[in-house]
Design goal:
There is one protein chain. The chain is flat. It is of the alpha+beta class and 832 residues long. The strands form 3 sheets. The protein has a 5-stranded antiparallel sheet with strand order 6-5-4-3-7. The chain has a 3-stranded antiparallel sheet with strand order 8-10-9, covered by helices on one side. It comes from Rhizobium mongolense.
Length: 832
């Protein structure tokens, strides 16, 4: 039914977009329309307006609370996506109305014949509904603009709040230090009293629960540690007997030794806190301190394990970076010292918060921590940690690269100056961020190095997983390298997807911010007027891969089950497989592109642009493509046919849409473009079938009986296999040759592929039989003719007159006389 929405009940833009009714509509109400969800869209927009007003008030009230602003920004983003979805849902109905109005056309003008009343009513109803949709869409757009404005306001408020917090200046003077010292003494006393009272209470009333919690946490840690040693024991300890371990071995031991042991300690600390808190052992004032203590212990242990794994101060052959022994020890000590300073600062901060200490104590504590870290950085910049040129780790090392040393000094001096000038919060923030961010960057870099080492050719096969895959799945070196490449890329992805979010969290981002970024990244990335969805692209790739695999499965199933059982010709099977393959890949590509969110109609412009290139630069490719389709459909030859094309002769082994592969009898593959096979004459010995005629030419001497030769040849050919009896073989007496009688044995073969073997066997049999029958196969002969006037003196007759020599009517001796004269001359020369 048509939705009756009054202008008064809608926003102002709706009333402005309302079109005046047609005169025909005044006499009769429009026909009811189907419910298009317009009323629901109006209600959603009204709710969104109320929600937006509430969020605007919340932003004003939470201008100094960053956590509240983060929560509000998430709600604003959700509201914007909801409004966008509401507007998009109305688009299909709007397109339908527009198309229908185009079909109905404009109302008749004055002086034209009137149209049917039902057409007028439908046009008026559709026009009114279109106006309503335009009004609602306009309100949705205005609301989206207001939401974007509020989102920008939240971001700007958070930025100002962050800057105000960091740049807050505190007076640093002797009186401030004196007040801090007094507050520290009072805090120590209060904390000692609170701790002693808590321990006394626990020992009296919670002794069993405390020991049970500690025992259970230690058991959990031992289980994790023993399991880690059982599974990765060979990667947890270094073998001192190995003089030059591979880089991937060093990385593996550094990674697994740090991960397993740190994870085991973290499990002990976390479970201890959970059990102690769960058994009501911890008091509300002590619980934050215990949590901070456990966190400090975990941080110090992790930095120590990490430094030992990367720098290996006492085992240079296992070191991951090119440092001297002294440099590895000094850098490891500096990192551990900065970790201890940060851990103690965090622990004392928790104590101060639990005890309600004054702000001056927190300021001085942060000041001291920033000064210590600055001094450590300056001291480290003057070290000589780099490995000597000769590669000896025991030799004195080289200085830092000049740029690195300058960065460390500037950063350390900047921390000291910033803290002493009163910007303690900024100095403490930069110091903490430098340490933790540096640790994360180094860890991420090591992860990238691990991926590079694993993906290196012939490296993954030497790992435990590579050897397992070899033995379990019988994988070859090439397959193992491909798996190693995939594992390396996966390590790259994990390292980056872990390191980058952690760095963003450290520099002021919240988890909600990262979730919002990830959502927008995977659902909608706008580049100008183009919207790209990484999730849609990934889905499209998966659908294309699934369609491709399904196509290949259908090809194999049809070929091995349907066509093979039906004894379909090999060429037909190849054509069907090729056609199904191209069709399936095309359909999978269309589905994948559509799932990726790419409008196929937008490709028309690209296709029109490509048509120009096709007409000029790609015409040969298109010609070969079309010719290939013609060959697959028309099938003038097929796979397995014996063809002759130009200088190429052989067996067709493959027909694709671009070229055809012909294998010669010398096993040479010739790739012939399809257009040449279409436009030129091609001989096909096996086009209809494999039956063909074969010939063997034979020559015998003139004194041989021709009928005897023909009988022998027919006898032998009738005994040969693969020779058809219908049509029967026959022998042709071709000609009287210059020195022989020429015959040709002609016979039909059931399979032209056996022609060479049949001809060879027949030639052997013919030669053997001719020798038995005394039939001579003559050699080429030449007659040398001498005229009488030009007989050399050596050939002059001595005892025989010329009259006794046989001559013809022209006075020329025959060849026999010439031979006799030649023989006599040779005898005379020998006697001489």
């Amino acid at each position: 039914m048509m939705l009756a929405v009054s202008a008064a009940g809608l926003p102002g833009s709706f009333a402005a977009a309302q079109e005046p009714p047609q005169p025909q509509a005044q006499t009769e109400a429009p026909a009811p329309l189907a419910d298009t969800g317009l009323d629901q869209a109006v209600r959603e927009i009204e709710k969104a307006k109320a929600k937006l007003a509430s969020l605007q008030d919340g932003v004003k009230q939470s201008a100094d609370n960053d956590d509240a602003l983060v929560s509000l920004s998430t709600q604003v983003d959700e509201l914007g996506r909801h409004i966008l979805a509401t507007s998009v849902n109305l688009r299909p109905r709007f397109d339908q109305i527009k198309s229908r109005l185009t079909e109905l056309g404009d109302p008749p003008k004055e002086g034209q014949p009137p149209e049917a009343q039902i057409v007028t009513d439908e046009r008026n109803a559709l026009t009114a509904e279109r106006a309503q949709i335009n009004a609602v869409t306009g309100d949705a757009e205005n609301l989206s603009l207001a939401i974007n404005k509020l989102m920008n306001e939240v971001v700007e408020t958070r930025r100002r709040l962050f800057a105000a917090t960091l740049l807050r200046r505190t007076e640093v003077s002797v009186s401030v230090l004196d007040d801090a010292a007094k507050a520290f003494v009072e805090e120590v006393g209060e904390f000692r009293q609170a701790l002693s009272s808590w321990l006394s209470f626990v020992w009296k009333f919670k002794r069993f629960a405390m020991f049970a919690a500690i025992f259970m946490s230690l058991a959990t840690g031992l289980v994790i540690l023993s399991g880690g040693y059982r599974m990765f024991g060979r990667y947890l300890t270094r073998d001192d007997g190995v003089e030059n371990p591979s880089y991937i071995s060093r990385l593996s031991i550094a990674f697994w030794s740090t991960l397993i042991r740190t994870f085991a300690l973290a499990a002990v600390l976390v479970t201890s806190y959970i059990f102690l808190n769960g058994f009501n052992v911890l008091r509300p004032d002590i619980a934050p301190v215990v949590a901070a203590l456990f966190a400090a212990i975990g941080l110090i242990y992790f930095v120590g394990r990490f430094s030992n794994a990367v720098f290996a101060p006492r085992e240079p052959q296992w070191r991951l970076v090119r440092l001297s022994n002294r440099g590895a020890q000094s850098i490891g000590a500096c990192l551990l010292a900065m970790a201890i300073v940060n851990a103690l600062d965090y622990l004392f901060g928790s104590v101060s918060e639990a005890m309600g200490s004054p702000l001056v104590l927190t300021v001085v504590r942060s000041l001291i921590a920033a000064l210590i870290i600055g001094l450590i950085l300056i001291a480290a910049s003057f070290g000589r940690p780099m490995l000597a040129h000769d590669g000896d780790p025991d030799a004195p090392g080289r200085h830092w690269p000049r740029g690195m040393a300058i960065i460390l000094r500037v950063l350390g001096l900047g921390l000291i100056v910033t803290a002493l000038t009163g910007y303690v919060g900024l100095a403490r923030f930069v110091a903490t961020q430098f340490i933790i961010t540096g640790a994360i960057i180094v860890t991420t870099y090591i992860g990238l190095l691990s991926g590079k080492a694993i993906s290196k050719q012939e490296s993954f096969g030497d790992t435990f997983i590579g050897r397992f895959l070899k033995s379990r799945f019988n994988m070859g070196p090439v397959a193992i390298d491909q798996v190693g490449l995939g594992v390396g890329l996966a390590i790259y992805a994990v390292a980056l997807m872990t390191g980058i979010p952690l760095i963003l969290l450290l520099w002021g981002f919240h988890i909600q911010d990262l979730q919002l970024i990830a959502y927008r990244l995977f659902t909608e990335v706008r580049l100008g007027g183009i919207s790209i969805s990484l999730l849609g692209i990934f889905t499209g790739i998966l659908l294309f891969a699934g369609g491709y695999l399904l196509t290949r499965w259908i090809q194999r199933w049809l070929d091995s089950n349907v066509m093979a059982r039906s004894h379909v010709d090999l060429g037909v099977r190849n054509s069907v497989k090729t056609g199904i393959g191209y069709l399936g890949v095309a359909v999978a590509a269309i589905i994948g592109v559509s799932a990726a969110g790419i409008d196929l109609s937008n490709l028309a412009l690209v296709a029109s642009a490509l048509s120009v290139g096709i007409g000029f630069g790609l015409q040969n490719i298109v010609s070969n493509f079309v010719s290939g389709l013609i060959l697959l459909v028309e099938r003038p030859f097929k796979v397995g046919d014996h063809v002759v094309s130009g200088t190429a002769e052989g067996i067709v082994t493959r027909i694709s849409v671009r070229a055809t592969e012909i294998e010669t009898f010398r096993k040479q593959s010739i790739i012939v473009p399809n257009s040449e096979l279409i436009n030129a004459a091609v001989g096909n010995w096996t086009h209809r079938n494999k039956v063909g005629r074969s010939e063997i030419p034979i020559s015998v001497s003139y004194h041989t009986d021709p009928q005897k030769v023909m009988d022998i040849l027919l006898e032998l050919v009738n005994e040969a296999p693969f020779v058809l009896r219908n049509p029967e073989p026959h022998v042709e007496f071709l000609r009287f040759g210059a020195y022989s009688l020429d015959f040709e044995l002609r016979f039909m073969l059931a399979d032209m592929g056996e022609g060479m073997n049949v001809r060879n066997n027949l030639r052997i049999a013919i030669l053997k039989r001719f020798k038995e029958e005394g039939i001579e196969i003559p050699l080429p002969q030449s007659d040398v003719i001498f005229h009488r006037d030009h007989v050399p003196p050596a050939l002059e007759p001595s005892s025989t007159s010329a009259d006794d020599q046989p001559v013809d009517d022209t006075g020329v001796m025959d060849s026999g006389a010439v031979r006799q004269l030649r023989s006599k001359a040779a005898d005379g020369n020998r006697k001489g």
